[in-house]
């Protein structure tokens, strides 16, 4: 007699969750389009869109500051797609997220080390040392796996990257690569909300499901997800 669901059933359940997640994203985008009022879009319409280099620079600076402060990076990507379209919005949003990541990492390493360690220790307790060890042993793989998931605490991982004392290059490179799929997804979502772009919404849902599936597979190898997946 089997003690539990087999691998086939587990895979089917995981696929089902990814499908639900993708459909939820598409339906959420359609709802935002129907409502016609999305938080942040009025500010983007006034100061960012159609402002040329000045608007792009302002978006980059504000987006980097928001990402460094721990605001959802998906929101930065959404507003980037809304303001500039899928391609330019993705590039500017990705750069803003990466700058915000670097700011948080170096701040934790050089300035706020004691504060960051105290806050993270209070939130993650005994798991903190284990996650730091995983990041130190596999900075690229563990970081990439965690960045690919749509859940988790982006700021916490940035601070841990600074506290772990790992080389900045693999951490930032893995962050950029891990940020990319969701940045594309939410830039497409922002573009689809602004224009009549049903195909952008559908493609965003598909890409999100694929990126989450890859992230989950990598997490089984990196063994860091259980400690940092909490929002």
From TrEMBL:
Cell compartments where the protein resides: Cell membrane
InterPro entries registered for this protein in UniProt: TMEM64 (IPR015414), VTT_dom (IPR032816)
Pfam families on file: VTT_dom
Entry keyword Transmembrane helix: yes
Keywords: Cell membrane, Membrane, Transmembrane, Transmembrane helix
Topology versus the membrane: Multi-pass membrane protein
VTT domain: residues covered: 71-191
Regions that span the bilayer: 12-32, 53-71, 83-108, 155-179, 199-219
Keyword NADP: no
Family of this protein: Belongs to the TVP38/TMEM64 family.
Protein name according to UniProt: TVP38/TMEM64 family membrane protein
